[in-house]
Design goal:
Among the domains are: 157 residues, P-loop containing nucleotide triphosphate hydrolases (Rossmann fold, 3-Layer(aba) Sandwich), CATH 3.40.50.300; 54 residues, no CATH class; 72 residues; 77 residues, no CATH class; 126 residues, Tetratricopeptide repeat domain (Serine Threonine Protein Phosphatase 5, Tetratricopeptide repeat); 50 residues, Arc Repressor Mutant, subunit A, CATH 1.10.10. 61% of the residues lie in helices and 3% in strands. The strands form 2 sheets. A 5-stranded parallel beta sheet has the order 2-3-4-1-5, with helices on both faces. A two-stranded parallel ribbon has the order 6-7. Helix 5 links the parallel strand 3 and strand 4. Helix 9 packs antiparallel against helix 11, helix 28 runs parallel beside helix 30 and helix 38 packs antiparallel against helix 39. This is LuxR family transcriptional regulator. Keywords: ATP-binding, Nucleotide-binding. InterPro entries: AAA_16, P-loop_NTPase, Sig_transdc_resp-reg_C-effctor, Tscrpt_reg_LuxR_C, WH-like_DNA-bd_sf.
């Protein structure tokens, strides 16, 4: 056995060789399981002892010499000079050798050494004076399993050296050195999992592999001939009951129950338990419950060594009693899949049920394997068609091209009109996912023509879906889509089917999307959006994508968050997670609208990583995820990561349209890239990208600023670039559109953009109105930017005290949002004067929000307590604390005491929970008597309970990245 990765053991043995050479007898028992390399270690010890000047004698036990007389002694030193086989003669022989030179005896298989030789070794080590003697003996893993009294006594007096399997890090080196194979990290991990790093099993498993490189998938396949030969040594001389139990455990797998194994082996339970003990003693089974092989490769080899007929019969027998005992579809399916095609009618449903469960858990490859097992049997035509459709769904993300081909073939073969309609909808959905709406429309058209007028309900479904598909067209919704959207309930061609639920919701979704794009009536878009989402299943990507977006555009964030939460819960584990991924994107968009940039990044990073660059399966979803992540990173100040992300997804070009023209997600990617240009101080390029995004949106009828406020963003960029006239025109257009839509957020953003094209008192007035509107919206980041610009305008007008108050509020909001560039800009301005009499702590490195959070943490408050006190999410608190540690050069809370002065009072007095002019959420609400339906006059800044209830949907819901779903609006 080649010796690799035993440096520590050899170093210890070198020390023992030196000690024995000094005249101190040393006995070492090398213990370990079969194949772990005990014999190889003994050979290495023999070589090292010889190099150290020892006379080396080697011997091995075994069945052939077990009953011989002094067989091992004779192997090691030869016969005594008088030629007699006596204990005294062999002891004298050893003494004579040690009188001239140190003696090293390396004995393999001590458990099988003959009794007389074991007695000789004990006697030699028990001489009445110190002798230069080293005895190294290989023993089994159990020191109490010696066959003779002499061997047991020798083990009792020995130092023990435990040999375990090679670590995972050493397996690649072992494979390269001894097998000439290259293993990557995944392949090495599989080898370690299957063999436990046992060198003998490793050699057997890697032997005969073709080519220099072996993959993890290849290593998980069937055991090779050499592995079968190697593992037979583990099973030699097993009693019949033990062999039957080993086969039963191999058939049942890791979840083997003792009762099931005993039934399969046809043994009474007491006999089965005794057989398990035998297998544990022989190191075949691990010493645990439920019974399992010590190394999975042993189980694979035992199974492969069974006659094929017996193996199939065993799998079917197990499947039957698992079915009868209702152990669950997945365990039954494992046995049926292992048995192969059986022609059993009852076997189809467990395999399909297991595939559905695996698909829901995201294990699409395993689901595909079970469905292919079903298709190997003879099936009725309708069942085969249904299974092929399920297989295509499972393979959507495993192999999207194959899945699309399977569905298309099935569509062309199907004769049933209803089945044809369902398949056409599935094919169209896959084509839409892959940004091929024109092909999707063609499939729907062809199928409708093939079905014909004899099936009007199916044709109407296809026509309605085709109208929805046109929403993704660069030219905008089709005439049919606009007709359906504009028709009232009485004029709806689909009116007789409205009770059908699904079609009614799809029509409502179409109307919501078109109304939101037009932006003329917020309520006209909200009503159908709510109808479309009512009772919708989690996996309905189309309705979620259009109608949930409408809720967010209308600033109904709590309601949108509830739908995202439900969809994510139902769809997150589905194959490909299409609807779940969309729900994540919308959750991030809610965070962005509410100004929680760290929350948006934390949600979108895993989405982008999961989909990956150049996704062939979900290019539209990937585009929206990248756009949202790039924009959030830019606003956080991470321009390097944002630029790298754009480059990785092929949208880092410098032309305003480059390769994004005609892509549904193109305008959003252009807007995200524009945010990066502005951060880099290139407003001209930013304006170019935003104007290109606007042209694409207008071309397809999306003119509402709630879809994308490209006019206001372009106006800000153009104003910064000196083109104020064009900027004012765009800002006025957006303000008119925002007034039609009617949300405070869109109006406030448009007023802010218009203000930046003016100067003097007109700018001050427009900025004041913008701040007033944004305070009534969930848009904390936009409010922070507007307040920063208002503060600058007030300072320019000489109104320093008012300017300082606005800048202080803007800086606090920027800190809450994580907007580092905005905070940096505000800190570069003249130091603001506090808006209240109580001194405000400052720190040269930290923002006010970071300082507030750090002070509470220094006082011993937990992250959860801080989040509750400041109305922040846990993720935002953790984000700010990480920034504090990085800026202060400390590793955690324990360093805060030395880095920041103590907070005089970590919490406000009970009779004044928060200052009136500066609430704890960082907003400066208007002072003066608070208007209220109860006609009471309250102190400035303290609204009554009715006012708080009316405003709670902004100041309690959207502030959090994880909004809790509410049962009602």
């Amino acid at each position: 056995m080649p010796l690799t990765g035993r440096e520590a053991e050899l170093a210890r043995l070198d020390g023992l060789i030196g000690r024995a050479g000094g005249g101190v007898p040393v006995i070492v028992a090398v213990r370990g399981e079969r194949g772990v390399g005990k014999s190889a270690l003994l050979e290495a010890v023999a070589d090292r002892a010889a190099d150290a000047g020892f006379r080396v004698g080697t011997a091995a036990g075994g069945p052939a010499v077990r009953d011989s007389l002094f067989a091992a002694a004779r192997q090691a030193l030869g016969r005594p000079d008088d030629g007699t086989d006596t204990l005294d003669g062999y002891v004298a022989r050893g003494r004579d050798v040690m009188a001239r030179t140190p003696l090293a005896l390396c004995v393999d298989d001590l458990m099988d050494v003959d009794a007389s030789s074991a007695t000789w070794l004990v006697a030699l080590a028990s001489l009445d004076r110190p002798v230069p003697l080293l005895i190294v003996a290989a023993a089994g893993e159990d020191p109490g399993s010696g066959r003779t009294a002499g061997a047991a006594e020798l083990l009792a007096r020995a130092e023990h050296l435990e040999l375990t399997g090679l670590p995972e890090a050493g397996i690649a080196e072992f494979a390269a050195r001894h097998c000439g194979l290259t293993l990557d990290a995944a392949a090495a991990a599989v080898c370690h999992e299957l063999t436990g790093g046992n060198p003998g099993l490793l050699l057997a498993h890697l032997a005969g592999r073709p080519g220099p490189a072996v993959t993890a998938r290849e290593l998980r396949g069937a055991a090779g001939p050499e592995a079968l030969r190697c593992t037979r040594r583990w099973l030699d001389d097993l009693p019949r009951p033990a062999l039957a139990m080993a086969r039963a455990v191999a058939v049942l797998g890791d979840s083997a129950e003792v009762a099931h194994a005993a039934a399969l082996a046809e043994l009474p339970v007491p006999d089965a338990l005794h057989a398990i003990d035998t297998l544990v003693a022989r190191q075949v089974l691990a010493n645990r419950v439920p019974p399992a092989f010590r190394h999975p490769l042993l189980g694979t080899a035992v199974l492969a060594g069974m006659p094929v007929g017996s193996r199939i019969a065993a799998h079917l027998k197990v499947a039957r009693f698992l079915r009868d005992e209702q152990w669950g579809a997945e365990r039954i399916a494992q046995q049926l899949a292992a048995a192969g095609p059986t022609g059993l009618d009852w076997a189809v449903e467990p395999l399909r049920a297991a595939a559905r469960k695996l698909l829901h858990e995201g294990r699409a490859e395993e689901a595909s394997r079970y469905l292919r097992c079903v298709l190997r049997d003879r099936l009725p035509a309708d069942v085969r068609s249904a299974v092929r459709r399920e297989l295509a769904e499972a393979e959507t993300f495993v192999d999207p091209d194959l899945a699309l081909s399977e569905l298309d073939t099935l569509l062309r073969e199907s004769e049933d009109p209803e089945v044809c309609a369902e398949l056409a909808l599935d094919v169209a959905g896959m084509l839409i996912d892959r940004a091929r709406p024109a092909d999707a429309a063609s499939v729907l058209d062809e199928t409708a023509e093939r079905i014909g007028a004899g099936h009007p309900a199916a044709v109407r479904r296809l026509t309605l879906r085709k109208a929805s598909v046109s929403l993704l067209d660069a030219a905008g919704p089709s005439a049919e889509a606009r007709r359906l959207a504009d028709a009232g309930p009485d004029g709806d061609a689909d009116a007789p089917e409205r009770a059908g639920g699904g079609r009614s919701r799809e029509l409502a979704n179409l109307r919501a999307a078109i109304a939101a794009d037009r932006g003329t009536d917020r309520e006209a878009a909200l009503a159908p959006a709510r109808e479309a989402l009512s009772g919708a299943e989690g996996g309905d990507l189309g309705r979620l994508w259009q109608s949930c977006a409408t809720l967010i555009r209308a600033d109904e964030l709590v309601e949108a968050r509830a739908h995202c939460w439900r969809t994510g819960r139902l769809s997150r584990a589905m194959s490909g997670r299409r609807a779940g991924l969309a729900a994540d994107i919308f959750r991030a968009r809610i965070c962005r609208v509410a100004g929680d940039l760290p929350g948006a990044v934390a949600i979108l990073r895993p989405v982008v990583e999961e989909i990956g660059p150049g996704s062939a399966a979900l290019p539209i979803v990937a585009g929206f995820a990248v756009a949202g992540l790039v924009e959030a990173l830019a606003q956080l100040g991470d321009q390097d990561e944002a630029a790298a992300l754009l480059a990785a997804h092929g949208v880092a070009g410098h032309g305003p349209d480059d390769d994004l023209h005609g892509r549904y997600e193109g305008p959003y990617l252009l807007a995200a890239r524009a945010a990066l240009w502005r951060l880099r101080g290139e407003p001209g390029r930013a304006a170019g990208d935003l104007l290109a995004a606007g042209r694409q949106l207008v071309r397809r009828g999306a003119v509402s600023p709630a879809v994308l406020p490209w006019r206001s963003r372009a106006a800000l960029a153009l104003a910064a670039d000196g083109a104020t006239d064009r900027a004012e025109t765009l800002a006025r257009e957006e303000l008119e559109a925002a007034r039609r839509w009617g949300t405070p957020r869109t109006i406030g953003v448009a007023r802010h953009a218009l203000a930046m094209t003016r100067s003097g008192e007109r700018r001050l007035m427009l900025l004041t109105e913008a701040v007033r509107h944004l305070e009534a919206s969930p848009a904390r980041l936009e409010l922070a930017v507007a307040r920063a610009d208002l503060g600058a305008a007030l300072r320019a007008a000489g109104r320093t005290a008012e300017a300082d108050r606005e800048c202080a509020a803007a800086l606090a909001l920027a800190g809450e949002c994580g907007a580092t560039p905005l905070a940096r800009r505000l800190r570069a301005a003249p130091e603001p004067v506090p808006a209240h009499d109580k001194p405000v702590r400052t720190h040269p490195l930290l923002t006010p929000q970071e300082l507030k959070i750090a002070g509470l943490a220094r006082s011993g408050h937990t992250n959860r307590q801080i989040s509750q006190m400041l109305f922040l999410t846990m993720r935002t608190v953790e984000f700010h604390l990480s920034g504090v540690y990085r800026k202060l050069g400390i590793t955690g809370r324990q360093g805060l005491a030395a880095a920041i002065p103590a907070e005089p009072s970590a919490e406000p007095p009970e009779d004044q929970a928060r200052p009136a002019a500066q609430p704890a959420d960082g907003r400066t609400r208007p002072t003066g008597p608070a208007p209220c339906s109860c006609s009471r006059t309250l102190p400035p800044g303290q609204p009554c309970a009715d006012t708080l209830v009316r405003s709670s949907r902004w100041h309690d819901g959207p502030r959090s990245a994880e909004l809790r779903p509410s049962p009602s609006r």
